[in-house]
Amino acid sequence: MCLIRMDHSMSKVAAVDEPAFRMSREAYRAWAEQREAGRFERVNGVVVATAPERANHNLRKFRVAQALDAAVRAAGLPCQVFTDGMTVEVGDSDYEPDAVLRCGGTLPGDAIALPDPLVIVEVLSPATSGIDRAWKLQEYFRLPSLRHYLIVWADKPQIVHHRRGDDGEIETRTVEGGEMGLDPPGIMITVEDVYA
User: How many C-beta atoms lie closer than 10 Å to residue 156's C-beta?
Assistant: First the structure.
């Protein structure tokens, strides 16, 4: 079924090819593999199209993944950094964060899901700002492995760092410059690296 969606941030109408019914994870993956174009997530069993990326969003995503990867390499940790396209499964939802860091053994080359993310990054876009800052904050911290959720502004140097402490409490701080420690796994990145 082809639905019509209005993107209010761009005032254009676009045809979106997404099913109008709930899908299991297996059915969604089979459906997604048949798509020639488009970006999608599955939220509570419902397929949702995501808006095309803007240049600032794409650049921020690239830079934060680079910063995480450089920090992991410098520390000599057995961790991997992935960009969007890899799935994080939360309950009956399948999300594709902008960047994910996980530690431990290397995943098989044909893996499509990250079972144990340690750090998840979302870069804000006009269409998803509220979802990333509220809904996904709650959703991602349902994952026992997650310790850090970074929300990165695309157009200004600002990162909100949500960190789960050893006691399970979530601490939040906004960082506009300087170093940001991510422990575990025991790495440091800077806001300046993300906004270089």
Answer: 8
The 10 Å Cβ neighbour count of residue 152 is 24
Successive 10-residue mean pLDDT values, the chain, 196 residues: 34 52 87 83 87 89 97 97 93 94 94 96 84 89 97 95 96 97 97 95
Q: Look at the block and give the residue holding tokens 């970006």.
A: 39
Q: Which residues are CB-contacts of 60 (< 8 A; sequence separation ≥ 6)?
A: 98, 123, 152, 153, 154, 194, 195
Q: Residue 84 in contact with residue 98, Cβ under 8 Å?
A: yes
Question: Under a CB-based contact definition with an 8 Å cutoff, are residues 180 and 53 in contact?
Answer: no
- Name the helix (H) or strand (E) containing 43: strand 40-43
- Is the CB of residue 48 less than 8 Å from the CB of residue 79? no
| Exposure on the CB side of residue 170, measured as CA atoms within 13 A | 14
Kindly state the greatest CA–CA separation across the chain. Answer: 49
- Give backbone dihedrals phi and psi of 171, rounded to 5 degrees, phi first: -105, 140
Please give the backbone phi and psi of residue 76, each rounded to the nearest 5 degrees, phi first.
65, 35
CB 187 within 8 A of CB 75: yes
